[in-house]
Specification:
This protein has 178 residues and is α+β, with helices and mostly antiparallel strands. The protein has a single domain, classed as Aminopeptidase, CATH 3.40.630. It has helices spanning 22-29, 32-38, 46-57, 104-118, 134-142, 171-177; strands spanning 5-8, 13-16, 63-69, 72-83, 88-95, 124-130, 146-157, 160-170. Strands 1-2-3-4-5-6-8-7 form an eight-stranded mixed sheet, sandwiched between helices. The N and C termini lie far apart (33 Å). It comes from Halorhabdus tiamatea SARL4B. GO terms for molecular function: phospholipid:diacylglycerol acyltransferase activity; protein N-terminal-serine acetyltransferase activity; protein-N-terminal-alanine acetyltransferase activity. Keywords: Acyltransferase, Transferase. This is GCN5-related N-acetyltransferase.
Length: 178
């Protein structure tokens, strides 16, 4: 059962992640359509996922939320690499294979971005997308992010070196979008 609602989007709710959600996360992270777009080259067993929950999801310096629709989990969205000094955060997100294409990622990311600027006082939010993940790039571009550059062959994933596309959005640009 997902944790309590933290933020409401138009079609999704963003909830805290609880240990009961690890089965969903483990199952979906094992799907090639998810792990290949995020660069996770290895599946996670329960022990590794529990460690991820305890050390990463439960970390007070990051925000990891379960994306839910009608109380059913459909993905995750997070701010990691949060820097209080420079008032910025890096987005991460994924949606379960069977739920992709429904607009859930755009709603969840937009809801978290709004929270980051409004409630956390971020000046800048950034995200990286592996080459070949056009749907994720579209999510960011639809929300007003600027494609800022490419780190060529920066990551070895899915059997080869891949480019990483960097996107950024400034607080004043988000206010213009609203």
């Amino acid at each position: 059962m997902p944790g309590p609602v933290f933020l409401d989007g138009e079609t999704v709710t963003l909830r805290t992640i609880e240990e009961d959600d690890l089965e969903f996360i483990q199952r979906e992270r094992a799907e090639p359509a998810v792990w290949r777009t995020l660069g996770w080259p290895f599946p996670s067993n329960r022990e590794q996922l529990t460690e991820f929950f305890e050390e990463t999801i439960s970390d007070e310096e990051t925000i990891h939320l379960l994306i839910s629709v009608a109380d059913e989990p459909v993905g995750m969205v997070s701010f990691h690499e949060v820097s209080g000094d420079s008032r910025r955060g890096e987005l991460g997100y994924w949606v379960a294979t069977d739920e992709q294409g429904n607009g859930y990622a755009t709603d969840a990311v937009g809801t978290l971005v709004d929270y980051g600027f409004r409630d956390l006082g971020f000046h800048r939010i950034e995200a990286k997308v592996f080459d070949g993940n056009q749907p994720s790039r579209q999510v960011l571009e639809n929300l007003g992010f600027t494609h800022e550059g490419v780190h060529r062959e920066a990551v070895f994933a899915d059997g080869g070196f891949r480019d990483v596309h960097w996107y950024g959005l400034l607080a004043e640009e988000w206010r213009e979008e609203e």
